[in-house]
Design brief:
Blueprint lengths: L1 E5 L4 H10 L3 E5 L10 H10 L5 E7 L3 H9 L5 E5 L6 H17 L4 E6 L3 H8 L5 E5 L21 E3 L8 H8 L3 E6 L4 E2 L2 E2 L1 H14 L13
Parallel strand pairs: 1-2, 1-8, 2-3, 3-4, 4-5, 5-6, 6-7, 7-8
Antiparallel strand pairs: 9-10
């Protein structure tokens, strides 16, 4: 089970992550987000991370060449793409073209985030050309959850986000079905808008308690 903690932006956040050791942390490069970090700050934070913790850059409607530059510089290991709120017709085709363009520029994995509202959204996620899929309630970091019963329609591995916290993540793991391969948290481990080390610790422990013994810490799935 992949454990991802998103929205790190301070040295204190990195110190807390090094203590609880998630598989993946996220830096938000969407300027409108309260968790936004400029690339130069993300690079400094990356250098503070313990070996073995990988990084994802979260982008909203960003140009593929800008994302590829951060991947090539080693600031991030994964690109996580949000945005494109109109996902029908030509706009839906544009999403696929953007993903394919980015994959042509780099060999690093691309995570595509999907806002889940209906079974049609699930089917779109199933057919995505992205390397990995993340299912969320909305733009990300909102603290809201969607109808988890829709997850039974997933036919490929996915990471679950949206409204997760230390108190409900075990329930989410049970409800998500066999295709669940990871969980992603941001606001659910914050207090007053900032990462809370105790909530981060409780979240990781809750995930470990909610998965089978063979997938416990030290034997997690490959990111």
């Amino acid at each position: 089970m992949i454990i991802k903690i998103c929205g790190l932006r301070r040295e204190a956040d990195i110190e807390a992550a090094n203590e609880v050791r998630p598989d993946l942390v996220g830096f938000v490069f969407a300027r409108k987000s309260p968790r936004y970090v400029p690339p130069e700050q993300a690079e400094k934070l990356r250098e503070m991370l313990s070996p073995g913790i990988r990084t994802a850059g979260v982008f909203t409607d960003e140009k593929p060449e800008n994302i590829a530059a951060l991947l090539g510089a080693g600031v991030i290991d994964f690109a996580q793409l949000h945005g494109f709120s109109d996902r029908t017709g030509d706009k839906a085709d544009k999403i696929s073209r953007e993903i394919l363009a980015l994959k042509a520029m780099t060999d690093r994995p691309v995570i595509r985030a999907y806002r889940i509202e209906t079974a049609q959204d699930i089917e779109e996620a199933n057919n995505s050309p992205a390397d990995r899929i993340l299912l969320d309630h909305g733009a990300g970091g909102t603290g809201d959850r969607f109808d988890w019963s829709l997850l039974q329609g997933m036919k490929r591995p996915f990471i679950l986000a949206g409204g997760l916290d230390p108190d409900n993540v075990r329930e989410a793991i049970r409800a998500a079905g066999p295709m669940l391969c990871g969980v992603d948290v941001s606001s659910g481990v914050e207090t007053d808008g900032y990462k809370d080390p105790e909530k981060m610790r409780r979240f990781v422990e809750a995930v470990q308690a909610g998965i089978s013994g063979k997938d416990r810490a030290g034997d997690r799935k490959e990111v």
